[in-house]
Amino acid sequence: MALEIPDKLYFKIGEVAALLNIKTHVLRYWETEFTALRPVKSRSNQRLYRRNDVEMALLIKDLLYRQGFTIAGAKKKISTDLRSQHLPDCNGESPLAILQQVKADLLRIRSRLNNNPDTE
Question: Mean pLDDT of successive 10-residue segments in the chain (120 residues)?
């Protein structure tokens, strides 16, 4: 059964703890261990979790409590998953090689534009 997250902009730490059925000190500890879990703080220094923070806390809870990961293992899994979401499929090439090729292409295009300005 999937957890239904209320449609709100911000959640207080007590609300998130109640949703996840964990103690608030556990959430505060996870914040120190997982860089992906970073709620904003209000002017009164109260933690305000956004929806993506709540989803990250749910993922952390699942990894630790249901799947049996250690803290270190869960950190590594989350880090790997986040990296793979941000990198395009490289078809076996290293991301650095692809970026270097893109840079070379852009420099070549810039050179052509500078040498042959379009006259309209």
Answer: 80 96 97 93 93 94 96 92 66 71 87 72
* Beta-bridge mates of residue 40: 48
Q: Kindly give the interhelix angle for 71-86 and 51-61, rounded to the nearest 10 degrees.
A: 130
In whole angstroms, what is the distance from residue 85 CA to residue 27 CA?
24
Q: Which domains does the chain have, with CATH numbers?
A: 11-88 (1.10.1660.10)
Q: Which of 67, 102, 107 is nearest to 88 (CA)?
A: 102
pTM score = 0.67
CB atoms inside a 10 Å sphere around CB 49: 25
Query: What is the three-state SS of the chain?
Result: CCCCCCCCCCEEHHHHHHHHCCCHHHHHHHHHHCCCCCCEECCCCCEEECHHHHHHHHHHHHHHHHCCCCHHHHHHHHHHHHHHHHCCCCCCCCHHHHHHHHHHHHHHHHHHHHHCCCCC
